[in-house]
Amino acid sequence: MSGFPHIALTSGTYRGTISGLPAECGYSSRHRVLKDYMARFGETPRETLRAHKP
What we know:
Blueprint: H1 4-11, H2 21-24, H3 30-41, H4 45-51
Helix pairs in contact: 1-4
Domain HTH araC/xylS-type: 9-51
Organism: Asticcacaulis excentricus
Protein name: HTH araC/xylS-type domain-containing protein
């Protein structure tokens, strides 16, 4: 998993939904992206988004 989802969520530039994030990153399964995201960043995309709201 590239840093794209994390960068997009922390920069405030991502205007999609959390459920749309896997498709943006090329994943077909949202469960797989959640597992990979948590392994890489130690938090869920929702937690990242909440922590970096503009």
